[in-house]
Prior knowledge:
- One of its GO terms (molecular function) is lipid binding.
- The protein is mainly alpha-helical.
- The chain is 49% helix and 3% strand.
- The chain has helices spanning 43-58, 61-64, 68-71, 74-82, 96-102, 122-127, 158-183, 189-193, 217-223, 225-228, 246-252, 258-262, 289-304, 308-318, 332-343, 348-360, 374-378, 390-397, 409-412, 443-454, 457-464, 471-476, 479-488, 493-568, 597-615, and strands at residues 103-105, 112-114, 582-586, 592-596.
- Helix 13 (289-304) packs across helix 14, helix 15 runs antiparallel to helix 24 (493-568) and helix 18 (390-397) packs across helix 24 (493-568).
- The chain is rod-shaped.
- The N and C termini lie far apart (84 Å).
- The relative contact order is 0.19.
- It binds a DNA duplex through residues 2, 5, 16, 18, 370, 394, 398, 415-419, 421-422, 456-457, 479, 505, 507-516, 518-519.
Amino acid sequence: MTRLDRSSHGxxxxxxxxxxxxxxxxxxxxxxxxxxxxxxxSVQDIxxxxxxxxxxxxxxxxxEVFDYSHRQKEQDVxxxxxxxxxxxxxxAGEGAEALARDLLVxxxxxxSFPAQFPANVAxxxxxxxxxxxxxxxxxxxxxxxxxxxxxxxxxxQQWQDLMSIMEMQAMEVNTSASEILYNAPPxxxxxxxxxxxxxxxxxxxxxxxxxxxxxxxxxxxxxxxEVENLPVANSSTLLPLxxxxxxxxxxxxxxxxxxGLFFPPQLNGTANDTAGPELPxxxxxxxxxxxxxxxxxxxxxxxxxFNPVQASQLEEEFDSDSGLxxxxxxxxxxxxxxxxxxxxxxxxxxxxxxxxxxxxxxxEEGAVGYSSDSExxxxxxxEGAVGYQPEYSKFCRMSYQDPSQLSCLPYLEHVxxxxxxxxxxxxxxxxxxxxxxxxxxxxxxxxxDFLDKQMSRDEHRARAMKIPFTNDKIINLPVEEFNELLSKxxxxxxxxxLIRDIRRRGKNKMAAQNCRKRKLDTILNLxxxxxxxxxxxxxxxxxxxxxxxxxxxxxxKVQSLYQEVFGxxxxxxxxxxxxxQYALQYAGDGSVLLIPRTMADQQARRQERKPKDRRK
DNA sequence: GTTGGGTGTCATGTT
DNA sequence: AGAACATGACACCCA
Length: 616
């Protein structure tokens, strides 16, 4: 049986803890509840939205995810999200080839348009009166089939950003819509009514208020107050469009099932043969519901701590690349206890148990703390006085999480060691170390033997050298008192040398203990920092997912509204317009115009050139 | 017998 | 300069 190092049991002692790593990552703790998507966005949230939108566009999310062949990559994307999304760029542009089969794809923006796009639409443009041409600053809104209609990505105009993202998706939607119109069954009223020649020269700048919008205003309010308050187009040259079937549409229109209305499951391959009744969602891969739930659950577990075990398990699942093992034993209580031990050097429970055992043991091993007050050193059982309390942190790491277990320290004392291994045989008093065969004697002898074993090497040496005072005094007395003590006795040179060695070793032993304690505390703090960073990471990831989810919903709404508006537009003959030849364009003044696609193309190219010119 | 954790000690550098 | 302190390295003990 051995003893616990009593140096750790005493109270008192100064703690000069210099832990430079404690505040290493303190700045990362951002205790901020996730803001509701789209509401009360703080500056940080806006920045995050910007980043996410950049990622969306840069990643080409509007392209590849349209195709079901790319849905197969969703799992990879989910995995990326679990990894923190740092590697999200890897899947950028992967899915363009599928669309490229049937579509002409803008290599940069991913915008696609049917390869069989009418080639002679230029004549339309020529026939269009110049005054009907939308202003140059018009933003190409929801003109999916336009080539080169990428909106300049201006972060200062976040709504335009949103529109541009939506455009990427609406591009696909409108392509689908065009196919609906072109390839609808014969019985379809739209197709039967449609007979507009592709190159019919018509001024088709249409004020939406001249068309029937039915009951969609509430949906408009969802995406743009500008659209909601569309001014009446002042262009007298615009042909009034005859609304048709608005009432019937009103009865069946629903913002939630518009996708099903406008996107039949089968499209003839030119657009997107995977666009089923559900809207193709470029974010589908990122927004897997299972992943969302997982993240939410994990975040709940981590942030709210409703179940530390589950939280830790989820955390381990979530972060497997961490070199540090964050075992579940690091509950907040254990951490705080550990932290408390580092800040407070007085542990009453340990000191009391130590003193009780020390009273029965003769050990005076010079494990003492920084305390230099004479009261401590005057106590014969002062061996328990220490500076740091390394055991407390150590217990945390040794799974002695329950502080109440510290009350069992008298038993734990025997964990320690008696490091007398390198003691010189001559220095040992042979009487102090009886052979093991003589151990089974009376209780007094057993106790004496036990106490002998508790003695450290220096204690044995001191006893052998007849040092007239305790090692505690030797070690803990201040220099002045120590020298004064030495002056009181007539000591030989050997004795003085031994006393100085004892003092040196005793202090160094305490220093080593403190050093190890600090090392443990540093590790614990680093682990806690890792946990904090993981918590922040999970929170940011959850916020990102929330934003993406909200963005997807807005995209769907805008797509539906676009299709609804465009589908209801009728020319003077009551026939629908071809999506391949006309597009709605969102003007800067809030009006929405129906223009030929060639015009939209030209404007888009103009706008595309402008930023480049500015760069020059 | 091996291994990992705990401990004491030494050497060295810093305060 | 000396004392105190900090720390890496090493050896040893023990489970």
